[in-house]
Amino acid sequence: MKKLKRSARLVEMTQYLLFRPHVLIPLTTFADQYNSAKSSISEDLAIIKEVFEDEGLGELQTLAGAAGGVRFTPKMTKAASLRLVEGLCAQLQQTERVLPGGFLYMTDLLGQPSIIQDLGKTFATAFADEDVDVVMTVETKGIPLAYATASFMNLPVVLVRRDAKVTEGSAVSINYVSGSNKRIQTMSLAKRALKEESRVLIIDDFMRVGGTVRGMIDLLQEFNATVKGIGVFVESTEAEERLVDNYVSLARMTAVDPKTKQVGVFPGNYFDEKEG
User: Fold this and answer.
1) Which residue, of 57, 74, 91, is where some domain finishes?
2) How many domains does the chain have?
3) Of which family is this protein a member (predicted)?
4) pLDDT for res 140
5) How far apart are the first and last CA of the chain?
6) Per-chain mean pLDDT for the chain
7) For position 1, what pLDDT does the model report?
8) Which residue in 66, 110, 171, 212 has a CA-CA distance of 20 to 30 Å to 267?
9) How far apart are CA 241 and CA 237, in angstroms?
10) Containing structural domain, residue 214
């Protein structure tokens, strides 16, 4: 128990809330921590709430009653997300990023903590209204993006593997058709990794036809799980027919010109509708 000046108390309370998204925190937690009256804590929270909302950092919801408290939901304005994605699109259009098969080299961008955190916060904002239990991705390049998204939603991450690992015990494996080359491939998920009837948010870094995501959807049926949302960083627009519907993309990639290696990368369908 300690007594701090309001300025110091505001800093500590803000940090406490930022590191505990989507957690209902009773006012007594702060009152006991700082040896302050609940009325003073309420005034502090009102200041924090105003700053969060004015700066587009998120929402601070107050719940009344004996079981009430405050809950912080991280948010990123669509305008801020659009600025981020437009900058990434400009980098992704560099010809030296074009790889054989029409893929883009994105590993360096997805390895930068500041970028991956903002992308994760964007996905967390896009799916903030969904009732989700876990975030799922398939190894390997989508892992940082899934963890960033999960950190802002305060959810665990479930990792689908290309091959079963003996260290994870018994697993459920399925065969799926890769959308890009029509090859039969295998993915597996440890039985202990996901509870039956879980509500799942799928996050991936790239989608062309959607074969991998379709495979994850089929795998989830083995667990009687429900897909509550699908988010991809970059989608290819050259696919004539998708294997999945109702997904959120942050960027779109046009077909690569084989002679010049020119490729167009533009904001995805998340930005098709203006923010209300």
Assistant:
1) 74
2) 2
3) Belongs to the purine/pyrimidine phosphoribosyltransferase family. PurR subfamily.
4) 83
5) 43
6) 91
7) 57
8) 212
9) 10
10) 78-271
Question: CATH number for the domain including 18?
Answer: 1.10.10.10
Q: 């519907």: which residue's tokens?
A: 245
Q: How far apart are CA 93 and CA 86, in angstroms?
A: 11
Amino acid identity, position 261: K
Q: Report whether 146 contacts 132 (CB < 8 A).
A: no
Instruction: Tell me the pLDDT tens digit for each residue of 137-163.
Output: 998 889 999 999 999 999 999 999 988
Q: What pTM did the predictor assign?
A: 0.92
